[in-house]
């Protein structure tokens, strides 16, 4: 089974190479990238089943160099869950993007580079999830970031370049912070292999641990868009093409959260992070959702809810118990799915209604009843209405919080409930304005609900930035969106088994010994052979 | 762990200068800042290898205790390659944003060869036309006649055909 592990990275990269060579044959490109992602999904599913059955992480020594000298790839339950969910999302969004290309008849999409870049993004993402050492994780991050720079500035229009610059510069700074942190950690411990670090960091004085941990966490917090390092996200994501925004929103921030979980649980479990993370998590929730309330543009609104819901995950990580980690993992899975699905629905809205601003949309319920249903399900789910998975995920987090009570935790639970209600309010306002309101009422409509809304910044020719000019949807686009919405419903229906799986994954995460023993079956080496030079 | 003080000072200067330049508004300066900070980080990684020593090549004569720690050099090399790629991308981004701010979206409108040929021919015809009129005027002036005698002040149909 271990032989399957490197395939998670190799398949997308080989696919990227082939699609790049065959850039002129669009159908072949589509066939190859779909095949590659289906193959990765299948591989990841097999790995998840296997790792879950045995309970032991699958470990591969790349090039047969034993750790800590060589690179190790480690797939434990958490990594396997993340890979399976991301592969499914990437596949769904790819189908949507193909459908959109067909609807556009290729008028303004330089498709020849879309598929290779998309597959490299996938490869980098999976590499970051299964990396067994910090530096390989950095390389994975850089792969997916470089691909995301290209995807965000696809087509090179003025608004995308402007948004791209913010995104690129912020990402570069966070990458340099991450790299600097790796250097410091290497200096303090003499290794970058996570399993060995887990053992050695404990021996450092606590103040050194705190500094190293903070350096690493700041780098990850920028990527995960945690307040106050989240300012860049709502400005850059909404300008990209709809499928690209969907992938970014669903997956890229979650890689940051994943890295935070690893840092907190595997590397720096001695550092008391609960109180600072709780405060940051609460602020992320509230500031994010208050930003969402001021937005008229649905894409920007969803970007702000994305920031705010990262707060729930930080809340879960902060509590730190096994129960809370399990709930966090379930919440991450739920949020990846529902956020991606909702952004795809907005992609449909912008093509049916020719705008994404709720001050201009109207009468969509009559015009596109099917899109309305998709949006309604997604919105209720994100808002946390029972019985959907959003509700179950939040209940899980609140229960875990109540199980390890402190005044601050109760404040956070309160903040979480308020955020949930405000999310529902923001999304239902979209529903009322865009779907429920008759088209005739749009002109001269006045309501205190939309009085002080902020429109998205406009480009020079007066059209809102990032709104596609093309209209019309294809069956593939609607089909892909339906598939993802159906997946969110599956998360609800199969919540029991999934929650159990998440708890088992949390059990793995909560005991770093499992991870360490699987990488070093013969025990952790005391010092590197050849003598410790320092 | 012993490290060269020169390198530490150099790293600090690079970090300081890099962060300062990065805070400017211009994209080119941000790129320069990124390069400085990136190199400072590379130096930081390099410093983490501790004392200097012999090249880490195992040829039977070197003692393991004498060689320098090779891992930071490997990490640094990878980081340099990544920085290089990202720099290339930012340069493209800078060029693109310069293009857009100077030429706007019209800069992207590519005229086909045929259109360009047509435009060139039209220009030539215009020059020919003006020259023709100028010649006519000159002839009239020489003959000392008024415009009345000229039956066709405009170039004839035949002339037009020539022009095309």
From TrEMBL, chain A:
It holds the Pfam family Proton_antipo_M. Keywords: Cell membrane, Membrane, Transmembrane, Transmembrane helix. The keyword Cell membrane applies. Residues 131-423 form the NADH:quinone oxidoreductase/Mrp antiporter transmembrane domain. One of its GO terms (cellular component) is plasma membrane. Belongs to the CPA3 antiporters (TC 2.A.63) subunit D family. This is Multisubunit sodium/proton antiporter, MrpD subunit. It comes from Herbiconiux ginsengi.
UniProtKB/TrEMBL annotation, chain B:
The chain crosses the membrane at residues 6-23, 30-49, 74-95. It is a multi-pass membrane protein. Pfam families: Oxidored_q2. One of its GO terms (cellular component) is plasma membrane. Residues 146-156 have a biased composition (Acidic residues). The keyword Oxidoreductase does not apply. InterPro entries: CPA3_antiporter_subunitC, NUOK/Mnh_C1-like. The keyword Cell membrane applies. Keywords: Cell membrane, Membrane, Transmembrane, Transmembrane helix. It is found in: Cell membrane. Residues 141-164 are annotated as: Disordered. Belongs to the CPA3 antiporters (TC 2.A.63) subunit C family. PANTHER family: ANTIPORTER SUBUNIT MNHC2-RELATED. This is Multisubunit sodium/proton antiporter, MrpC subunit. It comes from Herbiconiux ginsengi.
